[in-house]
Amino acid sequence: MAASLAHEIRNPLSALKLNLNFLNMSDEQLDDDSKECLSACMESVDRINYLIETTLDFSRKSSENLMQDSLNDIILKALEFFGNNAKRKCVEISLNLEEKIPHIPLNRNAALQIILNLLNNAVDACYEGGKVNVKTYKAVENNNVILEIGDNGVGIKDTEIENIFDDFYTSKRTGTGLGLGVCKRLLNELNAEITLTSKEGIGTNFFIKFPLTTVEELYET
Ligand SMILES: Nc1ncnc2c1ncn2[C@@H]1O[C@H](COP(=O)(O)OP(=O)(O)OP(=O)(O)O)[C@@H](O)[C@H]1O
Ligand SMILES: [Mg+2]
Predict the structure, then answer these.
(1) CB of 154 closer than 6 A to ligand 1?
(2) pLDDT, tens digit, 9 for 90 and up, residues 158-172
(3) Is 119 helix (H, G, I), strand (E, B) or coil?
(4) For residues 173 and 186, what is the distance between their CA atoms, to the nearest angstrom?
(5) CA distance 155 to 128
(6) Which of 133, 160, 164, when mutated, tests ligand 1's pocket best, judged by the most ligand atoms within 8 Å of its CB?
(7) In Å, what is the CA distance from 175 to each residue of 78, 100, 170, 178, 182?
(8) What is the enclosing helix (H) or strand (E) of 92?
């Protein structure tokens, strides 16, 4: 039901977007107020698209296509998409990726979406000149692969930590509050766990613990 509703909403929305893009191309003929109006319409279409993807379209089960894959490769791919956003905000992203971690059962698109959501939040939390660090390593006690994304941004109040995974909880003026809820659902399907530590005014670290893989011979090269 949700998937077909998503499909039915997407069709007219694509038509709307095409037509708005067409109007946008004849940009020179528009006065400033009309341009502003057009740009607000386009932003709203993107927002509806995002809401469909993150809620209704969730019926696509990402666990159906789990494949042993390289977490490090997916992180590098995420940075290709995301690097410029961080640069624009003058936030530096550094990497400490452990080479000797086993491949883990992943769905590439789901893993990308999780990493992009966490990077987005980390960069949003930073002031200009802030730092985000992305690490992969094996847990000392049991060899679980861990992905850690840390920032030295605003941090989260102790009283708010319990709310941040709730759908529609946001502290941002233009946030939808869906990013972490989506991450949690996607990680559930990968049998991975997400935890965090945060200190107001100091920064936040998110930890994702992936399940132990049984395919030990597949290592990063
Ligand atoms: N790294 C972080 N540092 C500080 N606060 C954070 C961090 N990550 C998440 N939060 C808090 O958790 C809230 C919820 O995050 P979530 O990603 O679910 O939604 P959002 O970022 O507000 O909106 P969007 O749906 O666009 O992602 C944020 O609004 C913010 O208050
Ligand atoms: Mg977010």
Answers:
(1) yes
(2) 999 999 999 999 999
(3) helix
(4) 25
(5) 15
(6) 164
(7) 20, 37, 6, 8, 14
(8) strand 92-97
Ligand closest to CA 46: 1
User: Ligand 1 within 6 A of 178 CB?
Assistant: yes
Residue 136 in 3-state DSSP? strand
Residue 107: CB within 6 Å of ligand 1? no
Cut 0.70: pTM above it: yes
- What number of other Cβ atoms are within 10 A of residue 159's Cβ? 7
Mean pLDDT of the chain: 88
Q: What DSSP designation does 204 have?
A: E
Where do we find the tokens 């993107």? 46
Share of the chain above pLDDT 70, in %: 91
